[in-house]
Amino acid sequence: MSEKIVSIITINYNGLKDTCEFIDSLIEYETFPYELIVVDNASENDEAGKLQSTYPEIRVICSEKNIGFAGGNNLGYCHASGFYILYMNNDMIVKAPFLKPLVDRLKVSTAGIVSPKIKYSYASDIIQYAGYTPMTSITIRNRAIGVREKDIGQYDRAEKTAFAHGACMLTTKSVIEKAGKMTEIYFLFYEELDWCLQISRAGYTVWYEPASTVYHKESMTIERGSPARCYYLTRSRLLFARRNNFRISKLLSCFYQVMIVLPKNMLYYSFHMRWEMMTAIWRGTKRGLLDKCL
After folding, report:
1. Antiparallel, parallel or unpaired: β 205-216 and 82-88
2. 149-164: per-residue pLDDT in tens?
3. What is the pLDDT of residue 223?
4. In terms of pTM, does the model score above 0.85?
5. β-bridge pairing 123-129 and 92-93
6. pLDDT at residue 61 above 70?
7. Residue 106 burial (CB count, 10 A)
8. Residue 9: CB partners within 8 Å, gap ≥ 6?
9. Residue 69 and residue 62: Cα distance in Å, rounded?
């Protein structure tokens, strides 16, 4: 294990074009020592083989089935040789070196995980992430700080924050060994939020580091407004509530999701005759209540 190397882990699932653009930007701009591990989550058309032949210097790890965000990242972690572990979406672009400030931030006392400033790739002066507010225990809601604001330097100070951003987050092997790997119960959504709580409970702090900036295409792996996205968001929100709330808060949160959020969304989609979305919400609610959350 090298304490001077960052192991960058990214997941490819039928996203060859985005993954290649991501790798090309790393090759062009990043100067800090790193290794790149691409976990292919059972993509079609031999995308894993194409990546390995195009970029022989990277490691491509193949999963026989799609094991989701946490599963893919955990698989990549098993093959990492660096002390620093960076989980980064394949729909990201870098336009300048960004690793060193993140590494330096993790050298600060209790810092356990850090994310950079994230902007939209289609509007490079607009912020997507400059930290997160805490999660409300009952409604399971929070927000990204600075989202869709023009970047005029208002978030250029490093701060402790509630959560790292799953699209780009750096930690270390020692933190993972103490706090544990990401839970794989979600498949999609809420994994990084849950993991940040794990890391916080292990005694570490979560940081936002604006000295680094990356650019996000956003939601390339699952279409916005799709039944699949709706299903996983609904399911994962309930699993998160069950895993991270206790006693009366857990009951109140589940009650809120089932008795307020579910009817409201069902009414909305019935009015717009989106029957497939109604089915997705109903299935997501059922599985969120019944699936194992530990």
Report:
1. unpaired
2. 999 999 999 999 999 9
3. 63
4. yes
5. unpaired
6. yes
7. 20
8. 37, 39, 73, 76, 77, 80, 85, 86, 87, 88
9. 14
